[in-house]
DNA sequence: CTGCTATACTTGCGTGCGCAACCATAGCTT
DNA sequence: AAGCTATGGTTGCGCACGCAAGTATAGCAG
């Protein structure tokens, strides 16, 4: 229970300042960023961040359509969660469900014109938000360093779906 | 709509690979880490991560008690959210509400013996989880670099509450 | 063709959360 | 002291989510 404020390396049952800064900083940064970005989109385009992510992935997908499961994986959502999200978005006309010709069990979600328009409108907001609140506050070197960290932290099989390499939020 | 995969710096309406890696990597890392850590605690100690955080902050607070608002800020939860969380934890005997003598509006949440015991038991699980899945995969330099990034990203007033400097998850 | 298991999605249900409205008390103003 | 505003906390409400069970189809074994 003794307070050991400036331990350089790791004791057994507590974290060093360095570890603490790295770890809790991420928690706070993530919370603060996603909240702010969601608020931005909601305020300017009446669009939740989750819907934006769906639009984005669809727009980048081949033929602007994706299987429900792939979409769920891409935006890190359970399948049931995605079903509901797609329900809502379909109701708003941002996308349409389409049955899969080669597999009657499967469905596609396809971007509608209205969905594409919404994405085009919202993209600037989101992008400038990400820049202002995050990227612009880091040097390119720091951005690279972060990228390296995530590669190490993320489970290997945890890929970001097909369009991972060229997906720009 | 042209694909410009390896832009070194920022075009106007998309992110460079570097930016993308830094940004989406954080989203994935956060999702993956919190999910895994929560599952660990839940499996081994039947304790949600949110409750663990409350116990942790209480244990570090002066007198093992904190005002509800401060607690809410510390664990990044709305006040109503905290009210409910404390309700649950009180029901389980992990903490107790206490009225504040100097301000009749306020309440304290105080750690109970049972809560302290729970924390002691769970601490190892959580700590080793954070290390295994996150900290141990980074070099000390990278940890420092991350810490620097978060300082820059986090809004200035966004402090982590009183016990910030010596809080070890 | 008849099962039998695996896969793709959806639905029922419970949970945890935030927002906004709501007390109760504090603390200033006159 | 009476009134006014600010603050700390709780409650009503609705929402988005995950889990587990359900439905439909695929694809293989016999």
Q: How would you describe this protein?
A:
The structure is a homodimer of 169-residue chains. Chain A is mostly helical. The termini of chain A are far apart. Helices cover 57% and strands 8% of the residues of chain A. Chain A has helices at residues 17-45, 49-60, 68-74, 79-91, 113-133, 140-153; strands at 65-67, 95-99, 107-111. Chain A is built from six helices and three strands, in the order H-H-E-H-H-E-E-H-H. In chain A, helix 2 (49-60) packs across helix 5 and helix 3 (68-74) packs across helix 4 (79-91). Chain A is globular, with a radius of gyration of 20 Å. At the A-B interface, helix 1, helix 5 and helix 6 of A face helix 1, helix 5 and helix 6 of B. Chain A binds a DNA duplex (30 and 30 nucleotides) through helix 4.
Q: Which chain pair has the greatest contact?
A: A-B, 59 and 58 residues
Query: What share of residues are in beta strands of chain A?
Result: 5-15%
Count every beta strand of chain A, where a strand is a DSSP E run of 2 or more residues.
Answer: 3
What is the alpha-carbon Rg of chain A in Å?
20 Å
Low-confidence stretches of chain A: 1-8, 158-168
Order of helices and strands of chain A: HHEHHEEHH
Shape of chain A: globular
As a percent range, the share of helical residues of chain A equals: 55-70%
Task: Write down the oligomeric state.
Answer: homodimer
* Distance from first to last alpha carbon of chain A: 45 Å
Biggest β-sheet: strands ordered side by side in the sheet of chain A: 1-3-2
What is the residue-averaged pLDDT of chain A? 86
**How many helices of chain A in DSSP terms?**
6
Structural class of chain A: mainly alpha
Largest sheet descriptor of chain A? 3 strands, antiparallel
């Amino acid at each position: 229970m003794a307070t050991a404020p400036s331990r350089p390396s790791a004791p057994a049952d507590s974290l060093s300042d360095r570890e603490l800064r790295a770890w809790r900083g991420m928690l706070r940064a993530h919370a603060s960023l996603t909240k702010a970005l969601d608020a931005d989109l909601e305020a300017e385009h009446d669009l939740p961040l989750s819907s934006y992510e769906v639009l984005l992935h669809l727009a980048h997908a081949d033929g602007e359509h994706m299987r429900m499961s792939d979409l769920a994986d891409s935006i890190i959502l359970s399948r049931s969660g995605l079903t509901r999200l797609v329900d809502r978005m379909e109701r708003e006309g941002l996308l349409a469900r389409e049955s899969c010709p080669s597999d009657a069990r499967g469905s596609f979600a396809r971007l509608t014109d209205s969905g594409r328009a919404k994405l085009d409108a919202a993209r600037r907001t989101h992008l400038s938000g990400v820049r202002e609140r995050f990227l612009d506050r880091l040097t390119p070197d720091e951005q690279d360093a972060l990228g390296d960290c995530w590669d190490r932290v993320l489970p290997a099989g945890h890929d970001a779906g097909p369009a991972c390499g060229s997906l720009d939020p």
